[in-house]
Amino acid sequence: MWDSLLIGARLATMKSGGVPYGAIEDAALGIDDGRIVFCGAADDLPGAPQDLARKVHDTEGRWITPGLVDCHTHLVYGGDRAAEFEMRLEGATYAELLKAGGGILSTVRDTRAADLDLLVARALPRVDALRAEGVTTIEVKSGYGLDIESECIMLRAARRLGEQRPVTIATTFLGAHALPPEFDGRADAYIDLVCDQSMPAVVAEGLADAVDAFCENIAFDLDQTDRVFRRAAELGLPVKLHAEQLSDMGGAALAARHGALSCDHLEFLSDEGAAAMATSGSVAVMLPGAFYFLRDTNVPPIDLMRRAGVPMAVSTDCNPGSSPATSLLLMMNMAATLFRMTPEEALAGTTREAARALGMADRRGTLEVGKAADLAIWDIERPAELSYRIGFNPLHGAIRAGEVVAGSMAR
Ligand code: DI6
Ligand code: FE
């Protein structure tokens, strides 16, 4: 007997290569021990539902998708940047604020001043907002501590989120996010600290699943990024990169040479960068919240990536400065409206490709036998509705590792 069986369902399996959305109508989905054990047409069930599972739930024609995956967030941080938002509305730019010691560095001050418990308490409502929309996996980056201990505290806080809530947390060490004030004018010396001390400390405590960097004219250059990536390889961690967000630095091609899981932002991605990413299989993580909030005008070259065969994910980039967003559904709408991604690409971008961007494609991101039973069940008539609405949440229920964890099903 399986633990549970969902019947009367329509499945958007998000398996690629077949019908749109990998859709199966008149479907059923069986769950045992936290995994999917059956996923297909109800006619193909090996017996009567009551004989197959201890719990049978009729989903009454609702659509089931993979649990959503938010593959790029900075949602652990101290303070907020609402005052900076007002300054930007008066004309100050994002880059100017950082150069003047604000921006990311103001969040670094507030994060260093917070302790672990406070960071967790501040992050939980953001995690819960994402979970309320069917998100079952969230990536969380460090990068607002920038000294050894503060980076470790951020990542411990991120890990704790996954202990306090039924959600899978993937952590990323982003020591090379900004140059901390104590290293002003000594960027190479700071990268020494990242490579020789911070990253090994983080790895020794098992605090990071991947390593990221911010390669940009207001952050770190190609050589510095290359050093961070080589050290990550020595320590056995996969890499990803904030690349070509504000200018074309050639970061995507560098990251691709290192076999990066993903390159993120990419508003200024070149033909060469896209070709390199296609070769390496790196996922392009689209962050329309940051594009919108910074009032960017350079749309990432979606069509170029499509033609090159670069997989595309969509994420919130949840952070206090450039994307204070906690709605992945809104990001899907923005990916469609602002970037002209199709609703199917947007949903693949928050499921299959987002899981791939975290190196989890073998375990999550599609509805397939053997994968984690992470599901979202929606009150919708067609999957495109997930990208279509603005500020409406049609989640009926979310299931994570076989347990109901959100939506009206959980109440
Ligand atoms: N790019 C981003 O979008 C975030 N970090 C980065 O390198 C924003 C970080 C912030 O402004 O606090
Ligand atoms: Fe980011």
Terminal CA distance reads: 26 Å
Cα radius of gyration in angstroms: 21 Å
Number of helices: 16
Bound molecules: 3-[(4S)-2,5-dioxoimidazolidin-4-yl]propanoic acid, fe (iii) ion
Main beta sheet: strand number and arrangement?
Answer: 8 strands, mixed
Strand content: 15-25%
The count of strands amounts to: 16
User: Helical percent range?
Assistant: 25-40%
Q: Ranges with pLDDT <50 over ≥5 residues?
A: none
Q: Label the overall shape.
A: globular
| Average pLDDT rating | 97
Label the structural class. alpha/beta
Describe the structure.
With 411 residues, the chain is an alpha/beta fold. It has 16 helices and 16 strands. Strands 1, 2, 3, 4, 5, 14, 15 and 16 form an eight-stranded mixed sheet that branches. Strand 10 (240-243), helix 9 and strand 11 form a beta-alpha-beta unit. Helix 5 crosses helix 6 and helix 6 packs across helix 7. The chain is globular and about 70 Å long. The protein starts with a strand and ends in a 5-residue tail after the last strand. The site of fe (iii) ion has 5 residues, from loops.
What is the fold's blueprint, element by element?
Blueprint: E1 2-12, E2 23-32, E3 35-41, H1 49-52, E4 53-58, E5 63-66, E6 68-70, H2 82-89, H3 94-99, H4 104-113, H5 116-131, E7 135-141, H6 148-164, E8 168-176, H7 187-204, E9 210-213, H8 222-234, E10 240-243, H9 251-257, E11 262-265, H10 271-280, E12 283-286, H11 288-293, H12 302-308, E13 312-314, H13 328-337, H14 343-349, H15 352-357, E14 375-378, H16 385-388, E15 395-400, E16 403-406
Parallel strand pairs: 1-4, 1-5, 6-7, 7-8, 8-9, 10-11, 11-12, 12-13
Antiparallel strand pairs: 1-2, 2-3, 5-14, 14-15, 15-16
Helix pairs in contact: 5-6, 6-7, 7-8, 9-10, 13-14
Bound molecules: 3-[(4S)-2,5-dioxoimidazolidin-4-yl]propanoic acid and fe (iii) ion.
Fe (iii) ion is lined by residues 72, 74, 242, 317, 319.
